[in-house]
Amino acid sequence: MVNGLEFEKPVLELRNKIAELREFTKNSEVDLSEEIDKLEARLEKLEKDIYENMAPWDRVQVARHANRPTTLDYIDLIFTDFLELHGDRVFGDDSALVGGIAKYKGIPVTVVGHQRGRDTKENIRRNFGMPHPEGYRKALRLMKQAEKFNRPVICFIDTKGAFPGKAAEERGQSEAIARNLFEMAGLTVPIICIVIGEGGSGGALGLGVGDRIFMLENSTYSVISPEGAASILWKDASLAKKAAEAMRITAPDLKELGIIDEIIPEIKGGAHKDVEGQAKEIDKVILKALQQLQSVPVDKLIEDRYQKFKHMGKYSETNQLENIHS
Hints:
- The chain has helices at 9-26, 33-51, 56-63, 71-78, 120-125, 133-148, 166-170, 173-185, 201-205, 226-234, 240-247, 251-257, 275-293, 298-310, 320-325, and strands spanning 80-84, 97-104, 107-114, 153-159, 191-200, 212-216, 220-222, 262-264.
- By secondary structure, the chain is of the alpha/beta class.
- Strands 1, 2, 3, 4, 5, 6, 7 and 8 form an eight-stranded mixed beta sheet that branches.
- β5, α9 (201-205) and β6 (212-216) form a beta-alpha-beta unit.
- The protein is globular and about 70 Å long.
- Component of the acetyl coenzyme A carboxylase (ACC) complex. First, biotin carboxylase catalyzes the carboxylation of biotin on its carrier protein (BCCP) and then the CO(2) group is transferred by the carboxyltransferase to acetyl-CoA to form malonyl-CoA.
- It holds the Pfam family ACCA.
């Protein structure tokens, strides 16, 4: 199915039927407007039923859609005067992670994010959006530069995970991600993180320590892919759908768990249906967050960030022996 997902099949078929009837009515003397109105009413109800009750696995498929907007798409639509910067000053440049200086409504900011490709050739060049250590070191270099010149940092997260290959491990993949976590925790400028597609494992977390964390409605954020979790738990990757439901990796689940601050609504069917409209929704939350954060004193900014992550996954303990004797 071209540009469609399995759960969307009834919607696409009905849209095609309506288009066919419109074309037939246009080229003949037969008036089918009444039938078309009935089908459009049915389509509206069907879209509401499908898009407002999407299963976790459906959202995973939307997050992975080939036409889903990327970091560079949003940079073009939200920011001005973007100047991309390259290299980590240690090993080289990594096209799987882009970043640079831009202006946001006249305010200088630093923008970094994972970058996937649109086709096979570009995906190979960008390593399918899975950064090497030099990608995370480049991002950290730009964030430290932002701190020096007092520029807010905006991170776009969209990766299956950091590249797990031998060369990446030899060059210190784990250390690079850990260093980012450490440094971002104490950065003295506001950090805004937005999950725009897949937020996979440490590869996502390497850009995910922020004062505000947002997720697009149909994005995902997890420690492992549903296929990987199914392979570990049940020795069968085909049970990914079951794993996606159990893992609670969708935006509504993570908002409930306190991992993210806000869900950014998406166009019906996903962000790829209206990229400019989706950029406007992201723009709204960035503006609101910056207005809130720029007036916060540095000491409080860092303390609030620390407390934010300290309370994630908070649990309470009970004394099992007391429970037994009571």
